[in-house]
Amino acid sequence: MIEACAGTDEEFAVLCIDLDGLKEVNDVFGHAVGDKVLVEVARRLLQTARGGVVARLSGDEFGLIIDGRQPEAGQALAAQLAEALAKEFLIDGKTVHTGVTTGISVFPHNGSDAAALLANAGAALFRAKVKSRGTINVFEPDMDRQIRDRRVLHQDLSVAIKNGELSLHYQPQAASGETVAACKIVGFEALARWMHPLRGFVSPADFIPLAEESGLIFEMGEWILREACREAASWPVPMQIAVNLSPAQFMHGDVVNLVHSILLEAGLSPGRLELEITEGVLIEDFDRGLALLRRLKALGVRISMDDFGSGYSSLSYLQAFPFDKIKIDRGFVLNLGKTPQSANIVRAVIDLGHGLEMSIVAEGVETAEQLSFLAKEGCDAVQGYLLGKPAPIAQYAGLVGRDNTMEPARKTG
Length: 413
Ligand code: C2E
Ligand code: CA
Ligand code: CA
Known about the structure:
Blueprint: H1 2-5, E1 12-20, H2 22-29, H3 31-49, E2 53-58, E3 61-67, H4 72-86, E4 89-91, E5 94-96, E6 99-107, H5 114-131, E7 136-138, H6 141-160, E8 166-175, E9 184-196, E10 200-202, H7 204-214, H8 217-233, E11 240-244, H9 248-251, H10 255-266, E12 273-277, H11 280-284, H12 286-298, E13 302-308, H13 315-320, E14 325-328, H14 330-334, H15 340-355, E15 359-362, H16 368-376, E16 381-382
Parallel strand pairs: 6-7, 9-11, 11-12, 12-13, 13-14, 14-15, 15-16
Antiparallel strand pairs: 1-3, 1-6, 2-3, 4-5, 8-9, 8-16, 9-10
This protein binds ligand C2E and calcium ion (2 copies).
């Protein structure tokens, strides 16, 4: 196509098409069904492309080349493809839904060789996914810069620990009471913070996924756990400490050994440590995840299920493993008093947890109304801005029994 179009005023588009939901299909129905979905998707793509070039680029990514006036012809085809794939698939008697997200680059404006055109269609796809799944996005030159930025951020993150740019904030967790005064703070959740020398504060919602992508999460997760345990062990009042573990930390290395040796090193009693995990740990590899959770629990630490209700929240996970706690996702708490559904969902999750002898924590409690509703419904614990924002531990010195006016000099006395 490049040879045919070069030097003429002909244009063509490269489409990078990402199948949405294949991972979920594999998780829910198994890989055999996932494979059949791919075959069927390929068939529909070929049919809709009407003679255009179609290729499978990787696991769930397809490439397409289409000639004509651009970007209009490419966009029109992308819309037709999306429509063709929006129709449900019937596979082995199961109904499966998928969708596609598409990035487009145009010859010659977005690249004069195959590598540049594919890379830019990929960049456009990346932006499309960030914006919203199911969208179609045409490459714009500044995307290139944004993706390069991301790479720089990766590099910066790799030296962040060494440079002392990572720190922990602590957010109080309290036993429920109907008013703030009636709530008793029993512990803290450690939340990671990155102060980048040039960009300033980078949110963990942004850098934890980056760390997971690059494998830095192992080193970082170890630092976070060690720092949180060391800090908690130094408190005169033996408050609880909750630490988030990423599913990636369960996939490689020995997370059980790590937790065990850090507890010993810090001199922290296992009963004071709580590990917050998400269902990702069980989705990725159920048997391995379950075995590791059991061994962690055997160390004497508590395990809580974070963000409950926001993903698949399969009840089979609750059946398979005796979590100590369920954390009801912030989204439901936010909507209390706004939609009747969320009140019912919160009530049902509280009942469900209690029936399984798990205690319930509500996250993201911001108003007195939310707090009193939760307390009345029997929710065991609460966490949120109403009780205290994540902050450096010095801000909660009184609660952990440390006099924050104490001079460092007194250490020597
Ligand atoms: P998460 O574990 O669900 O943590 C709760 C998040 O909700 C925190 O955001 C916290 O600041 C925020 N939050 C707490 N109370 C309220 C409230 O009342 N209202 C609102 N609007 N937000 C509230 P943060 O600190 O930005 O962390 C975001 C996510 O990043 C965490 O969600 C967790 O998934 C991840 N994360 C943070 N620190 C770590 C870490 O050390 N390790 C790992 N693996 N992930 C971490
Ligand atoms: Ca958490
Ligand atoms: Ca959460």
